[in-house]
From TrEMBL, chains A, B:
UniProt keyword list: Isomerase, Lipid biosynthesis, Lipid metabolism, Membrane, Steroid biosynthesis, Steroid metabolism, Sterol biosynthesis, Sterol metabolism, Transmembrane, Transmembrane helix
GO biological process: sterol biosynthetic process
Coiled-coil annotated spans: none
Protein name: EXPERA domain-containing protein
Organism: Lolium multiflorum (Italian ryegrass)
Segments passing through the bilayer: 26-45, 57-78, 113-134, 146-165, 177-196
Pfam family, one: EBP
Amino acid sequence: MGAHPYTPAGLDLPGYVPLRLSQLEIVGPYLGASLFVLAAVWLLSGRCGRLTKADRLLMCWWAFTGLTHLLIEGPFVFTPDFFTKSNPNFFDEVWKEYSKGDSRYVARDTATVTVEAITVLLEGPASLLAVYAIASRKSYSHILQFTVCLGQLYGCIVYFTTAYLDGFNFWASPFYFWAYFIGANSSWVVIPLLIARRSWKKICVAIQHAEKVKTK
Amino acid sequence: MGAHPYTPAGLDLPGYVPLRLSQLEIVGPYLGASLFVLAAVWLLSGRCGRLTKADRLLMCWWAFTGLTHLLIEGPFVFTPDFFTKSNPNFFDEVWKEYSKGDSRYVARDTATVTVEAITVLLEGPASLLAVYAIASRKSYSHILQFTVCLGQLYGCIVYFTTAYLDGFNFWASPFYFWAYFIGANSSWVVIPLLIARRSWKKICVAIQHAEKVKTK
């Protein structure tokens, strides 16, 4: 059994190749690229006429979350051998680092892989479609955003509940529990809740109005 | 290792108490009670004025699915020892029978229990709320129905994907695969898809209308 930094220590990871990048070398580029995406979408969306600040902020979020789903979570789903590669790329290193907060990633736990696969294949493209839908003021914009939020929330419930039922002991230390398992995921609980609530309200108002004028 | 009728044969179920009821004694009462609920809601909803036939059919579905989630799936979630009880009740027997189509139920697989718990705690009450919302023509009726449908669909995707990733070998025979694993679950794929599509369209039409008259 090769030595690895994950919990439980008994986890067998044959062929594990140790991390080469430091935490800063992993988190830094991700945060930097994310800030770049947020700034670029904010500036570009300012050139689309008639968009409210709320819409522009939403476009920033959907671009950020869509790219995270596709470019960060995508490689995890489609690289089952990421932790044994002798020449690991940045994304392999990301998931070796994140696994310190949840070793089910490196262990390829079924529920975790399933939630990630749904996130990458459905929520990733749908998030980017939401950027376009908001910019072009499509009538499906709210229900699409609501759909992606529900998917993200359902995924988080499955993610946290399966961790709880399977023993709640997958982090290398309390630091990684709070920073990665809780911290890194909290945005995908709080922000989808806020957006879903907003879309729900907007939809109810529109339906109420439509009922009044008997569009039926 | 006690003898049991489930696959894989190596599954260890200490204290397993064999089924006493026949398939007919289990499926018969469930189908009978379901038909009773469907008929009762159909007849009662006919007395509410102004409800379309589509609305009345939807009320029948939401009552049936809500009661199935709460009364059939509820006991599974909250009775971890259902297969060892010396005096099993009807619901214990239901899940011992269904496990012939998916032994992850009797094995209490984490992902399966998680999806069932979400279904019971969130989608069960929300389905019954949908019956009320349709009857009272609430403005949140469509978005609520859409929410429950997405939950059911996400649950089905997790359910089938985890089965696939874990080896796709949980049924006692092809009959149980088709009748239980596929057959019994197919309604919760097809009907939520149809209702979600309908609600999506209704919401888009209402939003389109609201945009036109600049309710913003």
